[in-house]
Amino acid sequence: SPLSSKVQETPAEDDNLIVVGVAQVGSESVWRSAHTQSIQDAFTRANGYMLIFDNARQKQANQIKAIRSFISQQVDYIVLSPIEESGWDTVLQEAKDAGIPVILIDRKVSVDDDSLYASWVGSDFVREGQDAGYWLEDYMKKQGREDDEVNIVVLKGTKGASATIGRTRGFNEVAKVQRNWNILQQVDGEFTTAKGKEEMARLLDQYEDIDVVVSQNDDMTFGALEAIREAGKTAGVNGDITVISFDAVDAGVELVRNGEINIDVQCNPDQGKYVEQIIQDMEAGKEIEKAYYVPERVYTQENVGEEENVTEGISG
Ligand code: GZL
Ligand code: ZN
Fold first, then answer.
1. How confident is the model at residue 306 (pLDDT cuts 50, 70, 90)?
2. Which residues, listed in sequence order, are joined to residue 49 by a DSSP beta bridge?
3. What's this model's pTM, rounded to 2 decimal places?
4. Is the CB of 35 under 6 A from ligand 1?
5. Which ligand is closest to the CA of 158, given by its number?
6. Does position 1 have pLDDT exceeding 50, yes or no?
């Protein structure tokens, strides 16, 4: 029979589509899913884009492979959420040599030459950590416990991630000037519910008096709350253990409403539209900033009912 080689139709290349390669961290958390959704909502065909999306499943090597594949496909822009801050100089130089602008989203890179990326959109992670620390300082005062020993455990996110580095630095800045705060342990909870639960259970075994848990994302907090319950303790408002969380995904804010989480420091995942705006500006030859911070707030018992009081738009 004649060779029926089915000729692979190359997709009709609409010249005027902007081709964007996105190297996403993975799908490790509820926050990450919302973040991915914001990217997919922004880069639609209707908006004039062809989106090539890669999920690195939490491995930097996969992100580097994805970037190299975007370069060989000669995309117009590369958007990267770098899983950790180091290890990017070589592959970003390759993108630069290929004349493909790289826009960072969410997390940051630490590179010698910051011309290796055009711009960054994300959260002020150090500020988030400080907000958590200042809230705890204020809360202890309100509770009349400013002179009590406060035993704190910290569930950290994945090693080397800007969110982990920033939240840890910001909280530690406040903690180090509190005479009576003891940070018993800071452990890697990997931003996941399973690991957060496992680590919290281990800490509850090890210490009979934990007053506060600082959990660097809601997914870990969901696990920590299970571990606290299984240890026969209570969490949140009027609980044995005060709970400080980050991300403020919908399910996290719900737990603030019902009192299981005392404060949830928002990390705004709605970043895709800001990166799309930057690309529009670059297409129009406009000057762009090196960094854009997305608007964020914190959720507590007092303000959880309030409307989103963040000002729309990014601050350069
Ligand atoms: C923060 C983001 C973090 C979230 C986690 O901007 O990088 O990664 O806090 C996610 O939920 O895994
Ligand atoms: Zn105590």
1. confident
2. 18
3. 0.92
4. no
5. 1
6. no
